[in-house]
User: Fold this.
Amino acid sequence: MQVLSRHRGFVGIAVVFLLVILLAWVGQQVHVGLVGQGSELRQQEAVTASRELIESEFANTQKAMKVIASEAVRLTSNHTLPLERIPSATLIQELESIRLPDQWSLSIYDMEMRLIAWQGESIPLVEEPPVNHADWRIIRDDDWRTALVLWEPLIVGDAMIGKIRVTQNLFSRAPVHNSVLEDYDVVDTWRRRARLDIQVAYGDTIGENLLQSLDGKPLGTYVITPPSEAKLIAATAVFYGNLMALGGTLLVLWFLWGIWRWCHANLSLTRLVIFAAALGLGRFIWLYLEVPARYQTGKAPLSPLFDPVHLASTLGGGLMRTTGDLFISSLCVFILGVAALRYAHACSKPPNNHQGIVWIRLGIGILAGLTLASVLVAVLHASVLDSTLSYIGRSELVPSSLELVVYASLVLLALGIVLIVSASLTTGFKMKPSRICLGVSGAVTVVMVMVLDWLQWSPWIFSLSLMIACLYTAVWGTKADIYLWLAARRAVPAALALCLLLYPVYYDALNQRKQNRVAHAVSTFDQAGSPEVSLAVREVVEEALRNPRIHELLVSGGDLEVEADRLLSGSLLSLLGAYDASVTFLSATGEELHSSGSAALSSEATQDLLIELSTGIELQASNYTFVEPQSTGAARYQYAGLAAIGEGWVLVRAQPHIVPEEANTPLLRILSASGSPDLYEDLSLASYRSGRLVHTFGDRFSKYQLDPEVASDVTRNGSLWRQGSAGESSRYLTYYLRRDDHVVAARMTIDGAFDHLYYLLRLVVGGLILCIPFCTFGYVIQWKTGLIPRARLRYQDKVMNAFLLLGVIAVIPVGIAGYNVVTEENEKALQSWLRQHLERVESTLAPEGRIGENSVAALERSNIDSLSARVGLDLNLYRGTRLVAASRRQLIDDRIVDVRLPAEVFSAIYGGAERFTFVDHKLGEFEYTAGYRAILDSNGNPAYVLSVPTLPEAERIEEERARTLAYLFGAMLGLGILVMFTGSVLARALARPIARLQQGLEEAAQGKFERVLPVESRDEVGALVNTFNTMQGQLSDSRQKLARQQRQLAWREMARQIAHEIKNPLTPMKLSIQHLQRSLGDKDPSRFKKQFQRTTATLIAQIDSLAHIANEFSSFARLPRRKVVTLDLRKVMSEAHALMQAEASAAVTLDLQLPDIPLTVQGDPNELRRTYINLVKNALEAVSGQDQRRVRVTAKVKADKIITEVIDNGSGIPLEVQDRIYEPSFSTKTSGAGLGLAIAKQAVELSGGQISFTTELGQGTTMQITLPLYPDGA
Assistant:
């Protein structure tokens, strides 16, 4: 009960949290029952709220479109229509001031529906515009897009001069789904906000729930599926479950805080273990409660942190099940490390200093370090191998937010482990281990490191580096103030050191991930061939299925040649220059109707292939698509796609052939489904039969025959990893796998110096970002505790701060300028590349022109596909504002490339007379640049605009930019480290002589003048040291002279005092003897006898006085021969009180007030007794003239001190003599040598105490003695 009463506040708050949990549980039970009873009402409320949300959002969208239309009217009214030139480049430039959101577009037409100006992507004009009023429409672009359209009349004055069309995509379908392209649907936003299923039918005008325009026109209907009773109950249960989890979380945090305060009050190993166990238990409780993940579901930006899609590892029983959980677990380890370090600092050295304890403590530290090193290796591997994050992506130096969290978590975990191990080692080093102990510990560490490496638990270089880092922290790092480690100049190097420590294991995990991908790619390639070609074949087949004209021709038996050529023209398959392709149409019975293309087979071969593909499939008209790589024996793989279409079949086939490498156009990753090209990215694959190459993917396999030694090893082992090189700059790693009668190989480039620098810098970025909260926390704490600004700042720190500031001033502007230069130069290089290739296209047309013709005529006669194949580039051709030809028609059909010339291009070429222009485009998060060149007619006017997009090269270009920025960032980081290191060295060099001078001055202040400082420089500092040495010598001589003079003065003063004190008793002695001498002549013997007795008594008294004077001076002058023992001060004070009680008169009240507990001190009992006798005697003499004479002697204990007081009610000490009462030979009394208080002060100080007084004239004096309480008496 005493414990509860002492911690009433803590227990009260814990009870509150328990009540929250209990009330939430009760509320859940009650509310769930009420929801079940009133489910219909709640369903209606949810539907009503969703209806209001939809109608409000739809109305807000229309209002925003109205605002844009009004702004367009305002800008257009400044121009007089009809314009001299349509479209108007001037008006297009003015429309650039209107910032359109994504998925929006703006078009302005004149009364003849000619396009005047535009912004944004084009939406086909499929609707009939209204005559003279505003109108709202819903339009569809096939099944690709659905848009909301606003037609606004363009009225200037009273005349209508044109029409404005504002569109917003309500739905946009992506051709494939990956990290770049995804569907857009405004209804998804409504679903997320309403948390209900919502279906919309655009264009429908009959239904209960109508989507209406601002003027009330029906534009569609929507259906809201009300939440089921089970869903309502589940939502209610989730709410109260979240409340209970919150209460449980707060309760755990509160108990952890209480346990930490309990541990911190008297930190011991037992309490530290209890705190660690509580922290671990609390972490698993949070995992069980799914905190904080349960509060972040579907909520940006933190929800991805707790999404297992990005990281899902079973290591640690769920401690790494998501990225956020990894960070929280690392934070717990760091907190434990800080607690362990606090314990190591508070841990006292055992009294016996037994070497056995030293061995145990160092052994625990070494075992903990190597065990935690293995744990850290496992965590590093799991964070890479069990993650879908793209750690090896080279398009951006700065990692994604989730990657940054992982990097910061790993650095934080490593820091926590270093602190824990350092704390264990510190407790051992405090006991000053012997050299033998240190040597044996080092040898054991090396042996265990090698064992861990042999077991493949932890690489030896990592384990050894971790132990060295822990050793440094234990020996040197813990000596510094904790706040210094939170300063930027300490935190940044520490973060860099941890990143360097982690990198070997981190890269090993990356390399293992690459090898796993290579092995998987070999297995997949062996089964499915090249995904690039399979994807291209599938796209041609699906395009045939979508073409209604082919359906009609198969039914009517018409000519299919045009449609077959159209399927191949501009397709991805036709651009794979290393493959021959063909399209074959078959009747329902399998009879060949038409075949075209370079890979066309004979009728017999087509029938054989059809039979092979359709084995087990009935040849009937059905929606069936089949794409498969087919082996052709010792020849090559062929890729065939088969699909039922209408009253027949379509067969698409591709077969590789040998062509120059540069003719192979790269695969567009944005056209690949999610995950399909990633497996083969940066890989080359090959298949060998009987040692001969039969199929390849990529360009790294140049030999047509497998090396005999490799073939033998693969046959014997089944698989093989082998390194090789192709020239001096290219090194690669190849994986060979034997499959039945053939060998499949995959080859990837071995990472070079740039790759290592790139990966390391990405890890360093995570570590540096972790420094921001650490340094901020440190500065805030120092500011709140008054440490900033510091009362005293070392000169070395000032110099280092100056260099750090100089480094920041030098590095940051140079880095920013370098970044701008790199970006600008990259843009210039890209534009120069585009300019050269556009000129190359025109130069390619020149030989085809006839005499007197310009490039326009040659271009009109040329086929865009053949021209694209000759120059090896994707080409788009525009006439006016419309796209008239494209080499990659699929991009047009899939709505990836707009069919309308970008407004800024039209403005630059037709308005600004630019021959070349460049525009940045964006597809989702994918950015690329396109170059545009005007093809001029004979009059010098733009007849066509030729465009070269950098879609295939965009990633390579971005990788080059990232490479340059990585070098720049690495150089800036290296420069910053160099500045900090140079600053540290120079600060030490500058501060060392000044520190020596400071130490010399401190010794001089203590009276030590013997040390001569060394002169290490010939500059001003050296001259200052010489001057100091000279001054110190002069001070030494002066001190000796002063000592001699002081001794002479002391002897003179002593002689004067002794003479004065001796002269006082000599006078009465002389007078007494003279009286005795005169009484010799007295005839009365009795009178002589009386005189003799008086004289002898006087002489004896005066001789005793002389002896007393001699004893007093002897006691003060001689060195004390003290006998220090442990004693109870109460006994000493009682004895002094008893002695003085006998001498005190009856008119004096002498009280003694002592506590019941022992007052244990260490001192000489005789000295202390004399001290208290002297103080009480002085007090008795001080009250002699008072009416009421009181003297009180008291004692009490305060903290670790004993305070005793002698209090009198005398006249007090005059102010003018208060400073001299402890001086020898000073006294305010007429008798005595004035040495009592001087001797008392000396005795108290020798016992480790202090003596002081307080006095008030007319009220009395209090003499106070403070002595340290010996621990045995606590």
User: Anything to note?
Assistant: The radius of gyration is 49 Å.
